[in-house]
Amino acid sequence: MVDKKVNLKQKFESFSDQWSPKIAGELNGQYVKLAKLEGEFDWHAHEQEDELFMVIQGALTIKLRDRDIQLKEGDFFIVPKGVEHKPVAEQECRVMLFEPKQTGHTGNVKTERTVAVEDQEWI
User: Which residues contact 111 (CB under 8 A, 6 or more apart)?
Assistant: First the structure.
């Protein structure tokens, strides 16, 4: 994948499922993931990893136990490791995530949405 150009619009158009991040790239032990989000996710934390949410299209609220972080297109927020959070999107939102390769998207919580790290899909 040396010098491979990635077009975000094309990548987002290549899938329709929500709350299931797709791997679009890799650098320095981290994955660059794309996801479509709508509705509420589960409260969870990543005990060993920070997680960056960057809104590409739409709006996203990152609920923390003590406050809400409102993100709009072009904004990003880094959830520090160990901090419980709950992403919420009133309408479909497209996000880019940066996180270490071993990060599970449901963190310390296992639900029907959990996808094993080794089963994460490349697009």
Answer: 42
Best CA proximity match to 27, nearest among 83, 96, 81, 82: 96
Q: pLDDT by residue (tens digit) across 5-51?
A: 999 999 999 999 999 999 999 999 899 999 999 999 999 998 888 99
CATH number of 8-119: 2.60.120.10, 3.40.50.1000, 3.40.30.10, 1.20.1260.10?
Answer: 2.60.120.10
- Please give the mean pLDDT across all residues of the chain: 88
Smallest Cα–Cα separation from 38: which of 110, 74, 75, 87? 87
Query: What tokens were used for 12?
Result: 């987002």
Amino acid identity of residue 102, one-letter, is Q
Number of helices (H) and strands (E) in the chain: give both, helices first: 1, 7
Phi/psi for 12 (5° steps) reads -65, -35
Report the pLDDT averaged over residues 72-96: 97
